[in-house]
From TrEMBL:
The keyword Transmembrane does not apply. Keywords: Cytochrome c-type biogenesis, Redox-active center. Its main location: other. Pfam families: Redoxin. This is TlpA family protein disulfide reductase. It comes from Dyadobacter frigoris. Gene3D superfamilies: Glutaredoxin. It is found in: Cell envelope. The lineage of its organism: Bacteria, Pseudomonadati, Bacteroidota, Cytophagia, Cytophagales. Residues 26-177 form the Thioredoxin domain.
Length: 179
């Protein structure tokens, strides 16, 4: 390959990468489902995690009577790190609401997660989960985020998303009004 075709190939690949990143991270999300048309899990317990632990190793139970924001992430995951700054904004809005629980979950050990969250300054409820995810929450991709109530997945997003948007706030507020 001569120099000009190499430069054109590099330029084209750069444009393609930029477009892909834009659509994954910055493009407006219009597919956030409404509460009325979201598929529900067959059993309430099928979307809740057992053997969940806080970063000190203490067991934690998920409350099926609360609206649950569940995010699966990892310290090494680029898209996870891109979406993480929006989660504290949403958390801070609802952290004192006794009808809402947040679970920011990693399968990494506390020795990996604690320095990361200290360095970033995140004050979120981080947890560890080791084991198979329930079928409704199973997947290989991260980040994965779900908003759940009474065993029903109200919305889910696979990949990075903005969680401090008016659409998400509206979804949460609408559900809280019905609790």
């Amino acid at each position: 390959m001569t120099s000009t075709p190499k430069k054109l190939l590099i330029f084209a690949l750069s444009i393609l990468a930029f477009v892909a990143i834009y659509f994954v991270v910055f493009a407006p999300k219009t597919d956030i489902p409404s509460i009325e048309n979201v598929a529900s899990a067959p059993e309430a317990s099928s979307v809740y995690l057992s053997s969940l632990r806080d970063l000190k190793g203490n067991p934690v139970a998920m409350d099926e009577n609360k609206l649950v924001f569940l995010n699966v992430w990892a310290t090494w995951c680029g898209p996870c790190n891109m979406e993480m700054p929006g989660i504290p904004t949403l958390y801070n809005k609802y952290k004192n609401n006794k009808k809402v629980d947040f679970f920011i979950i990693s399968d990494e050990d506390a020795e990996t997660v604690n320095p990361f969250i200290a360095r970033k300054g995140y004050e979120l409820p981080f947890y560890q989960f080791a084991g198979p995810y329930p079928p409704a929450l199973d997947g290989n991709a991260i980040p994965r985020t779900y908003i759940i109530y009474k065993g029903k997945i109200l919305t889910q997003e696979i990949g990075a998303s903005q969680w401090d948007t008016p659409e998400i706030n509206s979804l949460i507020e609408k559900q809280l009004a019905e609790i």
